[in-house]
Amino acid sequence: MPKVSDSDLSERRAEILGAARQCFVTYGYDGATVSRLEKATGKSRGAIFHHFRNKETLFRAVAHRDMLRMTELASSRGMIGLIRYIIDEPDLADWWSLRVEITRRVRSDRELFDAWEADQSSLREAVTLRLTEQRDSGRLRTDIDLETTIQLLELTLEGVMSHLASDRVSDRLPAALDLVEESLRAHQPPANGSTDPQRS
């Protein structure tokens, strides 16, 4: 039997993760039976669990991959940019449904709990680093501490995710995100020292 290359193994693993993710989103963790996972991935039980020890390990890997993607986006685009991406692009649009399952599973799966906490910390660190850079460059308000700013952004993310999960998407969401972004932006006074009545 010819040896399978590392790139082929990585590709097969990624295919399984993508299909399994959709299965978990559609049916929930308990409803994503092995037979449904086989159908979703187009692979046998043996092929799936060759890459992942069991269903629990597969679910943890799905959750971890999503969080890596979100951390990457938050680092490059900021939290508001991440939220805009989730609204506009399909690959993370159903993330909230998966998060509901994660929140439920962490109560009984210690390994998932530890991995989820580590991933959440990485996301927060990425957001903190970007906000610090923005503050130091004069683009972010300095009269609000970073922890409060991060709390506002996290609440905004969860609120948008809740709307997406319940199909209550409004065409006013972009304007609402503009408002949040504007509220955090540092504004320089006019050069003549007068107060701009439009900025309050």
From TrEMBL:
Binding region for DNA = 33-52
**Entry superkingdom:** Bacteria
Q: What InterPro entries does the database record attribute to this sequence? A: Homeodomain-like_sf, HTH_TetR, Tet_transcr_reg_TetR-rel_C_sf
- GO MF annotations for this entry? DNA binding
Asked if Lipid metabolism is a keyword of the record, the answer is: no
The HTH tetR-type domain sits at: 10-70
Q: Per UniProt, which keywords does this protein have? A: DNA-binding, Transcription, Transcription regulation
Stored Pfam families = TetR_N
Under which name does UniProt file this protein?
A: TetR family transcriptional regulator
Q: Which organism is it from?
A: Corynebacterium terpenotabidum Y-11
Q: What is the lineage of its organism?
A: Bacteria, Bacillati, Actinomycetota, Actinomycetes, Mycobacteriales
